[in-house]
């Protein structure tokens, strides 16, 4: 009987060890699988926000500016010159504004990291490198905003440059700007995993309102003042 117990005990221990190893491997595989399948889309938030905002602003601002000038001037040169000036000024403004805004956010987060460090340093749980990697980049956001604004602003300029008839030019600018706004809305929704229809309609309706208000007010003021 003693010999029998001696033989049975190692077998039970080996069985428990095998089960533990199997469970550990299963949990490890599940963790790795989840890491591969899941993606933190919040990591895209910084550059996606700057890019989509810049492109929409460039398109809406320059298209509205051209529509406003076209409401009182038939000359194509006046529309193109106004659009180009809006492109340059808007790209510079977007870059500077985004740089200052993100740099302020970075300073706030650095201050929070320092407070977190002082509180957790004693426990040994603090990981400074991890926190540093999450800090926003002001230069990245500024460059993305300026480039995106320029890309969006070029669209109505290219749409109007080869059309000589005034009314046709205005219609083409409005149609092309609407199509581009829809494309930007879809692209932003797909990249950010948000509802496509809702995002596209929000961008499209906002662009229509901006162009209509600019055209109407400029037409009203131009007719009143005789410009």
UniProtKB/TrEMBL annotation:
<keyword id="KW-0812">Transmembrane</keyword>
<dbReference type="Pfam" id="PF01988">
    <property type="entry name" value="VIT1"/>
</dbReference>
<dbReference type="GO" id="GO:0005774">
    <property type="term" value="C:vacuolar membrane"/>
</dbReference>
<protein>
    <recommendedName>
        <fullName>Vacuolar iron transporter</fullName>
    </recommendedName>
</protein>
<keyword id="KW-0408">Iron</keyword>
<comment type="function">
    <text>Vacuolar Fe(2+) uptake transporter.</text>
</comment>
<dbReference type="InterPro" id="IPR008217">
    <property type="entry name" value="Ccc1_fam"/>
</dbReference>
<keyword id="KW-0472">Membrane</keyword>
<feature type="transmembrane region" description="Helical">
    <location>
        <begin position="78"/>
        <end position="96"/>
    </location>
</feature>
<feature type="transmembrane region" description="Helical">
    <location>
        <begin position="141"/>
        <end position="163"/>
    </location>
</feature>
<feature type="transmembrane region" description="Helical">
    <location>
        <begin position="170"/>
        <end position="191"/>
    </location>
</feature>
<keyword id="KW-0410">Iron transport</keyword>
<keyword id="KW-0406">Ion transport</keyword>
<keyword id="KW-0813">Transport</keyword>
<keyword id="KW-1133">Transmembrane helix</keyword>
<dbReference type="GO" id="GO:0005384">
    <property type="term" value="F:manganese ion transmembrane transporter activity"/>
</dbReference>
<dbReference type="GO" id="GO:0005381">
    <property type="term" value="F:iron ion transmembrane transporter activity"/>
</dbReference>
<dbReference type="GO" id="GO:0030026">
    <property type="term" value="P:intracellular manganese ion homeostasis"/>
</dbReference>
<comment type="similarity">
    <text>Belongs to the CCC1 family.</text>
</comment>
<keyword id="KW-0926">Vacuole</keyword>
<dbReference type="GO" id="GO:0140315">
    <property type="term" value="F:iron ion sequestering activity"/>
</dbReference>
<feature type="transmembrane region" description="Helical">
    <location>
        <begin position="203"/>
        <end position="222"/>
    </location>
</feature>
